[in-house]
C-alpha cells in the first residue's frame, strides 16, 4: 500500500498596525496510507475578521491556492477533492480529503489574512527566516 507524505508549513500575512496574529499547524509532517481519510490541522489566534487560505506546493512547482474562506458558508470546497471547515469558535480551519492519493504528496500551507479596510494601510508578508 502506498503512503502519502504531507509536509505542513504555516504562513502568516499581517497588516500594519493590527493586533497579534498566529497560525499554527500542529502536525509538521504526516504520512497517510493511500485511500485513507486525511486531515491537516490549522489553528489560528486572532480576534478580528479574517480570510483563511490553504496553499499546496507539489514537488518542483510553485504555490497554488488549494482553497480559501472569505465569508459565508463555513465548509469550503477546493480543488482535487479537498475541503476545509472554518470553525470560528474553535479558531480552526482544518483541511480534509475523503481519500488520499499518491499525487497528494506535497507541502501544505495554511495562511491567515485579516480583512482590513483599504484606508487602514497596506498588507505585508512577514519574511521567512533562513537558518
From TrEMBL:
Which positions make up the signal peptide? 1-20
Q: What are the alphabetically sorted keywords of the record?
A: Adaptive immunity, Immunity, Immunoglobulin domain, Receptor, Signal
Immunoglobulin V-set domain location is 27-112
Q: Does the keyword Transferase apply?
A: no
**InterPro entries on file:** Ig-like_dom_sf, Ig-like_fold, Ig_V-set, TCR_variable_region
Q: Name one GO biological process term.
A: adaptive immune response
Q: Under what name is this protein listed?
A: Immunoglobulin V-set domain-containing protein
Amino acid at each position: 500500500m502506498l503512503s502519502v507524505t504531507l509536509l505542513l508549513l504555516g504562513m502568516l500575512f499581517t497588516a500594519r498596525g493590527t493586533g497579534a496574529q498566529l497560525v499554527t499547524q500542529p502536525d509538521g509532517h504526516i504520512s497517510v496510507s493511500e485511500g485513507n481519510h486525511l486531515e491537516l490541522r490549522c489553528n489560528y489566534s486572532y480576534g478580528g475578521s479574517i480570510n483563511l487560505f490553504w496553499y499546496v506546493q507539489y514537488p518542483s512547482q510553485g504555490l497554488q491556492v488549494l482553497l480559501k474562506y472569505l465569508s459565508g458558508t463555513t465548509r469550503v470546497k477546493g480543488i482535487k477533492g479537498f475541503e476545509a471547515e472554518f470553525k470560528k469558535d474553535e479558531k480552526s480551519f482544518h483541511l480534509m480529503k475523503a481519500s488520499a492519493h499518491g499525487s497528494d504528496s506535497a507541502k501544505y500551507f495554511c495562511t491567515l489574512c485579516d480583512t482590513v479596510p483599504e484606508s487602514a494601510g497596506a498588507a505585508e508578508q512577514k519574511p521567512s527566516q533562513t537558518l
